[in-house]
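Escalated from tier 1: NDP holo job.
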Amino acid sequence: MDKYVVFGNPIEQSKSPFIHTLFARQTGQVMTYQAQWVALDGFTAAADTFFAEGGRGCNITVPFKEQAFTYADQLTERARLAGAVNTLKLLDDGVVLGDNTDGEGLVQDLLQHGVSLADKRILLIGAGGAARGVILPLLAQQPAGLVIANRTAEKAEQLATTFASHGRIAALALDQLDGERFDIIINSTSASLSQQLPGIPATLIQPETVCYDMVYGTGMTTFNAWAKALGARVVMDGLGMLVGQAAESFMLWRGIRPGARQVQRELRRTLQC
Ligand code: NDP
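Tier 2 regenerated the structure:
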């Protein structure tokens, strides 16, 4: 039976085994998918052992995405620019391919909820690993513009420079945002995890502004509750992105696209969010 795994530390909270088990059942694929805790200095050894024992592919979560980037023999363009890998696949010639499916997971979640990105003005708050991973797929949707804003402004400027040749992208400081207008605001900061707001002006939130928080969990996230209270009609959390990135990994491994909406519904029921 083909073996897949997710490596992380911690790993108990991972929803990936739940998601991939449902994908496999839904598409009739004969495979196993398990979560594996890895010591902080043990990623390379764990991956070597997994592939030596016949493993076909793995997901990588915090804090090993950069190590997986180094581990891969070959990289997709989106992984190269993201500087991080969340999916490894053993190719037939023994080469290990590294991909990053996070950004496509976000884009697919938005599209499946009827939110088109083409010709829209998008604000991306945050400039950490999650932001970096989604920029190329967002630009590929040909938005009217993508603005990055981050608490530490220099990090946003660096990202805008890195991706400048891939589309219309710019950086603004948080205190330069007042008076701007955006169709879609994506919060890629971890602020909601500590019940904090990322520091953008309330004037950006209009009834038609689509607000997306990459954080997910029980109940509405801090950012989404704030946006909703300011009148935003559409607020989305990151659960759909999580399922979306998993669907992209599954597609890369198995060559078959699973139905993400159905699995997202099941996961929401389980998590009560
Ligand atoms: P990083 O640690 O790399 O970056 C964190 C970012 O959040 C930085 O830009 C940081 O700003 C900003 N930040 C943190 N706290 C605050 C605050 N109180 N106010 C303003 N900005 C803040 O983390 P990642 O980029 O890897 O992950 C960010 C979030 O995205 C996490 O919560 C993670 O769970 C989520 N995520 C969700 C995914 C999904 O599938 N739904 C996938 C990947 C990530 P500064 O640079 O100034 O420190």
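The first helix runs from residue 16 to 27.
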